[in-house]
Design a protein that fits this description.
The complex is a heterotrimer. By secondary structure, chain B is mainly α. Chain B has helices spanning 10-36, 51-64, 67-75, 82-106, 115-118, 125-152, 161-184, 197-224, 230-261, 264-275, 283-302, 305-308, 313-337, 352-382. In chain B, 73% of the residues lie in helices and 0% in strands. The chains are: A mainly alpha, B mainly alpha, C alpha+beta.
């Protein structure tokens, strides 16, 4: 192999650079809470862990069920019935858009465009 | 083979630089369109497709026309076409790229484009159009590249290319047929609801595509000295004449059916295109009459064998291309939409931004074509298959 | 290149392709049937049901364009439809003359009352909708109850449906609709976004709550809405007792909106 030394050093630098986010994540201490303002209600549609991880997929599923199958009611695992609607169900409790949705989305660098169509509740503004 | 792109005379680099500048400027116009929406175009609630889709339609035809070189060469072993086949195939590649871009710039939500593949819908002609265009692009890239590589190495092309070539011949007919089906299967658009649409598309493609190819090759001949060959030009000119005659004939068939049946809905688009509305000629009427005159003039030059390959051939081809472009690139969409579904008239005229974006797509097509042809010309020169 | 190496690369490439495409196929197949949510889905308790929703408009009871205004206002306010003052505007329900609405039924000597009246237009919710046939993403689709619905989330804005619709029922958002709707009129209903197509939905969201469509409610009995498959329904009775026409019936789309003339 030509330039063995330079190539090896290059590979090492590349590996370190590519894996750097993991190292920073493992040893870094600058993780901050997003500081979302939780609504007063006790429980969401499903448990908090599920909602935190899956709310966007759940919303997609709700959308398809409601729009395509006319299934506009969701019966949660605990038996509670919910009307399927982002605007009229979710945002009834999650009234604080800036403190809840936006805060978490911003700190996670995601920009969903739900609100180009769905109307943000004016309450609390 | 890519190394052929890196060497060339100064004017080659200047040409590329010029194209890049045009593309950059036109991209700004596209940015305006993306930011403010398709409201910047001349399209409206009644005329919901405009310049973009009509250019898409026209260039599907240009892409399909490569078959007019490939078919005689492979089905009839007409060896004189072999030298310029690669230019037809590479022109098809550039044309399909333009088609894809014209669709993208026409979309209201371009970032959701992948939905067509994520939610495949076999009942939509658009779905098949996507499949056949991607297929045709791949076929032409593979066939063109492999045969050119074989030529460079001065060996016969590998055997597995042949079935692909035969497939590409049938595929070429399919792309333009499916494009015609986009229009011809729609109820309530009188100008499009005609069984002859696909045949008309193919005939107009098979005259205008080879005509564009010949014109571009004449420019290349002047710039580089590459000669497609006297006999090849003669044969291609003959093919163009036949296709143009059939194209005109098919249009006259449409006129007969519309006017002899005397059904108002079928007559209205044609009357509008040629006479305008309410006693005033529409702007498109001037173009349509110009197309009629140019079609007749081009046929007058091309039909007599004495003048067909004479010094007026390029003039005839330019007129033929313009006539077919007006018919398919303007008349088709405006005739279909302007007499609207309330049997009234909604005028359409592309805006400056719309034309600029379309020019940008043209420039990208020219860039792809220039680069591919540069490679092909370099190889042809290396292996002494450049002129007689 | 060494033949062995070449062979190896060929086999490796082919198997990688087969594996990835196979996995991709499996992935999409399992996506289609798996449900993410731990709960279950169903219809609402109050939902109004029908096998085939249809509308009968008694145009004889409307005297002028003014009489239709409250219907259009009710519809456009319920659905946050913006008012854009040019030919790129959005229309869910609008008015036009007999000549334009029923071009095939026109003759110049017909009764002045019919000829001079205006008629309301909206999506016909066809039994054989061309817009559904041409949509490349299933963003517009027909539901089991006959309603031709739209999923604005999926629409790519290709406008094939607008070319396909013979009734001009579809509008494209050439502009950002919120520019023309600074304050949405109905906070319970979304607006639309730039670059998607929209149209009347027969108020599927109101039917789900057991309410009649907004225009039907505002018409106070002059528009009937019900199940076309049910011989006892108000629409069937009205059609049995009166002369009715539909727009462009010769196209075979089977519109679900009937006009009593």
């Amino acid at each position: 192999m030509y330039n063995k030394k330079a190539v090896m050093i290059g590979i090492v630098i590349l590996v370190v650079l590519l894996s750097s986010p993991f190292w920073v994540g493992l040893f870094g201490t600058d993780y901050k809470e997003t500081g979302v303002v939780k609504p007063n209600q006790e429980a969401c549609v499903e448990n908090a862990a599920f909602m935190r991880a899956q709310h966007m997929r759940l919303l997609n599923e709700w959308r398809d069920q409601a729009l395509r199958n006319e299934n506009r009611t969701y019966v949660a695992e605990n038996g509670k019935k919910w009307e399927i609607s982002l605007q009229n169900t979710c945002m009834k409790c999650h009234t604080n858009y800036d403190g809840f949705c936006q805060k978490c989305h911003l700190s996670n660098s995601v920009s969903p465009y739900c609100w180009t169509c769905h109307i943000i509740p004016t309450e609390g503004k | 083979m890519l190394e052929k792109l890196l060497t060339g005379p100064k004017r080659y680099y200047l040409w590329l630089l010029f194209l890049l500048c045009v593309i950059g400027l036109c991209a700004l116009a596209y940015c305006v369109q993306v930011m403010t929406g398709l409201g910047v175009t001349g399209m409206n609630r009644d005329v919901s497709w405009g310049l973009y889709i009509s250019q898409f339609t026209y260039f599907v035809g240009v892409a399909a026309s490569a078959v007019m070189l490939v078919l005689p060469a492979y089905f009839h072993h007409y060896v004189k076409f072999k030298r310029m086949i690669i230019f037809g195939e590479f022109m098809a590649v550039a044309a399909v790229c333009m088609c894809a871009l014209f669709i993208v710039v026409d979309l209201g939500q371009p970032h959701r484009m992948a939905n067509v593949m994520l939610h495949p819908t076999p009942n939509s002609v658009m779905f098949y159009d996507m499949i056949v265009l991607i297929g045709y692009l791949c076929l032409n890239i593979i066939i063109g590249w492999v045969t050119l590589e074989a030529e460079r190495l001065e060996v016969a092309p590998p055997k597995w290319v042949k079935p692909l070539v035969y497939l590409s011949i049938i595929w070429a007919f399919s792309i333009h047929t499916v494009t015609a089906f986009l229009y011809a299967g729609i109820p309530g658009r009188h100008y499009w609801l005609t069984a002859i649409m696909a045949a008309r598309f193919l005939s107009s493609a098979f005259c205008s595509g080879p005509a564009i190819l010949l014109l571009l090759l004449f420019i290349v001949r002047r710039l580089t000295g590459f000669d497609p060959g006297r006999d090849a030009i003669k044969t291609l000119a003959t093919i163009i004449v036949y296709a143009m005659c059939i194209n005109v004939f098919f249009y006259l068939l449409e006129i007969f059916t519309s006017f002899y049946s005397n059904i108002p809905g079928h007559m209205e688009p044609i009357i509008f295109l040629f006479q305008g509305h309410g006693g005033h000629l529409a702007w498109v009427s001037y173009f349509m009459w110009a197309a009629v005159i140019m079609a007749i003039a081009s046929l007058a030059i091309l039909i007599p064998p004495q003048t067909r390959t004479g010094k007026y051939l390029p003039h005839a081809l330019v007129m033929l291309v313009l006539a077919s472009w007006i018919d398919k690139g303007l008349g088709l969409l405006i005739g279909g939409f302007t007499p609207n579904m309330y049997e009234t008239f909604t005028p359409y005229m592309p805006t400056g931004i719309e034309i600029t974006v379309a020019l940008g797509v043209y420039a990208i097509g020219a860039l792809v074509l220039s680069l591919l042809w540069k490679i092909a010309l370099g190889i042809k020169r290396d292996v002494n298959n450049f002129c007689d | 290149m060494n033949t062995n190496r070449r062979k190896f690369l060929k086999v490796a490439g082919l198997s990688a392709f087969a594996l990835s495409s196979g996995l991709a196929g499996l992935g999409t197949a399992s996506d289609a049937c798996a449900q993410l949510a731990p709960g279950s889905y169903g219809h609402g308790d109050k939902t109004a049901h029908a096998k085939r929703w249809a509308m009968v408009i008694d145009t004889r009871q409307f005297k002028s364009a003014e009489d239709y205004k409250p219907l259009i206002r009710a519809c456009h306010e319920a659905h946050n439809v913006p008012d854009i003052p040019d030919n790129k505007n959005i229309k869910w329900m609008w008015l036009d003359s007999f000549e334009h609405v029923f071009p095939d039924d026109m003759n110049e000597h017909m009764s002045q009352r019919i000829k001079n009246a205006v008629y309301p237009l909206l999506c016909n919710h066809c039994t054989n909708p061309p817009c559904v046939r041409v949509c490349p993403t299933q963003a517009t689709y027909k539901m089991a109850d006959g309603i031709v619905a739209m999923d604005y989330h999926r629409c790519i804005g290709c406008r094939f449906c607008m070319a396909g619709c013979p009734y001009g029922a579809r509008s494209f958002n050439f502009y950002d609709p919120r520019l023309y709707l600074p304050k949405p009129t109905n906070p319970r209903f979304p607006t639309r976004m730039i670059g998607v197509v929209e149209k009347c939905t027969f108020c599927a969201e109101r039917l789900a709550q057991g309410l009649m469509p907004a225009c039907v409610e505002a018409a106070k009995g002059k528009i009937l809405f019900g199940d076309l498959e049910d011989p006892e329904s108000s629409v069937r009775k009205a059609l049995a007792e009166n002369y009715s026409i539909r727009r462009k019936p010769n196209l075979g789309t089977q519109p679900g909106v009937y006009y009593l003339i």
